[in-house]
Amino acid sequence: MEPASDKKAFTERRGADIEIIDPGGDVPVLVPSKVRINGTEVLIPAGASIRIGEISEDEAVTVTLTMYARRIVIAAEGDLG
């Protein structure tokens, strides 16, 4: 049986809110220069491509992008903290 905390964490999982923003927006083609993930602006390299998977009502949308990382942690969950 799973601990209650594990069940709670599982039910709270959800996709990230991704905002791809063109601050000018005056031309027919969007040229994004800002990206936010869950409301936090992230730095993306100039010329980096942003790929958005097929959008449908049946499946979650995937987004692939390259961004700069300030810190990367790879660890077992029990080792964090």
What would you note in describing this structure?
This protein is 10% helix and 21% strand. By secondary structure, the protein is mainly beta. The chain has one domain. The relative contact order is 0.15. The model has no long low-confidence stretch (mean pLDDT 84).
Describe what is shown at a glance.
10% of the residues lie in helices and 21% in strands. It is extended, with a radius of gyration of 17 Å.
Outline the secondary-structure elements.
Blueprint: H1 4-11, E1 18-21, E2 34-37, E3 40-42, E4 50-52, E5 63-65
Antiparallel strand pairs: 1-2, 2-3, 4-5
Radius of gyration: 17 Å
What letter string, H or E per element, gives the SSE order? HEEEEE
- What class would the helix/strand composition place it in? mainly beta
The protein's oligomeric status is: single chain
- The overall average pLDDT, rounded, is 84
Low-confidence stretches: none
- The number of distinct helices, counting runs of at least 4 residues, comes to 1
Helix percentage: under 10%
Q: What's the number of extended β-strand segments?
A: 5
The neighbouring-strand order within the major sheet is 1-2-3
| End-to-end Cα distance | 25 Å
Offer a few descriptive terms.
81 residues, two-stranded antiparallel sheet, 1 helix, three-stranded antiparallel sheet
